[in-house]
Design goal:
Elements: H1 28-35, E1 39-43, H2 50-64, E2 68-73, H3 84-102, H4 121-131, E3 136-141, H5 148-162, E4 172-177, E5 204-209, H6 215-229, H7 235-245, H8 249-263, H9 274-287, H10 290-298, H11 302-313, H12 319-331, H13 346-356, H14 358-363, H15 382-403, H16 410-424, E6 428-432, E7 440-446, E8 449-458, H17 463-478, E9 482-489, H18 498-501, E10 505-509, E11 512-516
Parallel strand pairs: 1-4, 1-5, 2-3, 3-4, 8-9, 9-11
Antiparallel strand pairs: 6-7, 7-8, 10-11
Helix pairs in contact: 4-5, 6-7, 8-9, 11-12, 15-16
């Protein structure tokens, strides 16, 4: 029998329809702030459970009976050409229409068309608060969709009301969006002097970043499916999905949904395997659902480009120059909070290079029907593949490096695009990219064999020796003795002729056999 519940990948979760875990399970801080009548912000990347949390919080507060709570969005006022007057009306209409979802009629604010005073959000909230016997908890979603004077106006009105809460203004206001409150000032014109503070919302007591799922929480989520259907996500499968998704809630649900409904076609008698998880990853990347498209759109932004280029190259990041960019990328869920900084999960780590070199991949055509890089026994001929890349690089690098939007990471992206045929041929590439490592490591699995490639930009005279030391240590961690060190010259080809730049050298280093390309 088909399960009544399923893994949700669109909109907020509802317990009777979707597998879900309590979004308020780790949020004692929110209830403490509400009890203390504080204003605060909640921020997290798209599709990480913000809206689900807000709905659950409002319904729980109303059910417990100590507060009146409403969630509403200000997105209807989120465009640049809107005036403050029209924005206020749209936001008030959104508040009023949403209140009916959470409250009975006597606790709702009056219809805006019946309001006789100057229709501003501040006045409207004052009169609503005065009319109610209980304190109001207002959960204001999509705050960072507002621009310029409208954003300033709304934040100023909320700040004005803070002084007269809870009898004459909402006791608690939570501003919810993609980014922390510090980002709001970046959207306000620098000439705006009326705010009088470094932050337009300096009354906030706390800024809460919603986290990703832990491995235990993924297991708890998936066990609900097992309880409904008997179909098991084994520990090994859960561990692999955690590696693929980094616990990102939408990805956790999307991978499971892809396996259960698309790959296994809701046949609950079939066993879920790690291969199914890998197939789900590839399907999601190739299909590029809305979630992944919104991530990709952010790659065009300059401060995202700075960080992603540094990660691909393994370069260090100067925190005095890039601190805001790092925090911005973290808030968007693109990078991890770990040190060193990495791309947040394996799926993002796979799709970002593919997108950045997509045009090149499309232009690389196979020569004939036979896969020339496959040996007669079906194994991968890595030497032949890399020698072909040397030839390709000599012929095409100047043209393609100039065309790349991510020029700083162009050499590595060229190689990754060239190696994409390995994945298309049924292989797998794991990318180890992190800020400050000084290189990118690629582990290629094909037909039961593993190949290790280390990519380095030749910035200094001793780059080769440094690279040999690094790949030797990396091979030690994998228990291997054979690897490839790929060095990219950064000097102009007019200085060093191609005959000198293109090299192939077999080196013995620290008991390892390393091919230097």
């Amino acid at each position: 029998m088909k399960s009544k519940r399923y893994f949700n990948t669109t909109g907020f979760c509802m317990p009777d329809m979707h597998y879900m875990i309590d979004p308020l399970r780790n949020q004692k801080i929110i209830f403490d702030l509400i009890e203390k009548k504080q204003y605060f912000t909640i921020h997290a990347p798209r599709q990480t459970g913000k809206t689900t949390l807000l709905h659950e919080l409002a319904h729980r507060l109303n059910k417990e009976g100590n507060y009146i709570s409403v969630v509403f969005s200000v997105e209807s006022a989120g465009y640049r050409s809107i005036t403050e007057e029209i924005a206020n009306k749209k936001i008030i209409n959104s508040l009023y229409s949403s209140s009916g979802q959470y409250l009975n009629k006597k606790n709702c604010p009056i219809p805006p068309e019946k309001y006789t005073k100057d229709l501003t959000l501040e006045n409207y909230l004052i009169d609503w608060a005065i009319s109610q016997p209980k304190p109001i908890v207002l959960l204001l979603d999509e705050i960072d969709s507002l621009y310029d004077d409208v954003l300033v106006s709304i934040l100023r009105q909320l700040r004005n009301g803070f002084q007269i809460r809870p009898k004459r203004f909402p006791s608690t206001v939570a501003l919810v969006g993609l980014r922390d409150v510090r980002e709001y000032k970046l959207k306000v014109r620098p000439t705006e002097a009326s705010l009088g503070s470094g932050s337009p919302f300096n009354i906030k007591a706390e800024s809460i970043l919603l986290g990703t799922f832990t491995k235990e929480e993924i297991s708890e989520l998936y066990s609900q499916h097992t309880k409904d259907t008997g179909q098991i996500f084994s520990k090994e499968v859960v561990d692999r999905i955690y590696e693929l998704t980094g616990g990102q809630p939408w990805l956790v649900n999307a991978v499971a949904n892809e396996i259960v409904e698309k790959i296994l076609k809701s046949d609950y008698t079939k066993t879920i395997t790690i291969d199914h998880a890998e197939q789900a990853k590839e399907n999601l990347i190739k299909r590029r659902d809305t979630h992944l498209d919104s991530l990709i759109d952010k790659l065009k932004e300059e401060r995202v480009k700075n960080i992603i280029s540094a990660i691909i190259n393994g370069d260090g990041v100067l925190f005095d120059n890039y601190d805001d960019s790092l925090m911005y990328c973290r808030d968007l869920g693109i990078i991890s909070e770990t040190r060193p900084v990495r791309i947040a999960n394996e799926i993002y780590q796979e799709i970002i290079p593919r997108v950045l070199n997509r045009n090149l991949q499309d232009s690389i055509e196979e020569e004939g029907e036979t896969k020339w890089y496959i040996k007669p026994d079906g194994k991968l001929d890595m030497d032949k593949l890399l020698k072909a890349f040397q030839k390709f690089y000599r012929r095409n690098s100047e043209h393609w490096l100039e065309r790349f939007d991510y020029k700083e990471a162009g050499q590595g992206l060229l190689l990754m695009a060239f190696l994409q045929r390995v994945i298309n041929g049924g292989g797998r590439i794991d990318r180890e990219m992190a800020v400050g490592r000084g290189r990118t490591d690629l582990t290629i699995e094909f037909a039961g064999e593993t190949f290790v490639l280390e990519l380095k930009l030749k910035r200094y005279d001793d780059t080769k020796e440094e690279g040999l030391d690094q790949i030797s240590r990396y091979l030690d961690t994998l228990g291997m003795t054979k690897g490839y060190l790929i060095l990219f010259e950064l000097k102009s080809s007019t200085v060093i002729p191609w005959e000198t730049r293109i090299k192939w050298e077999e080196v013995s280093h620290q008991n390892k056999n390393i091919t230097v390309v």
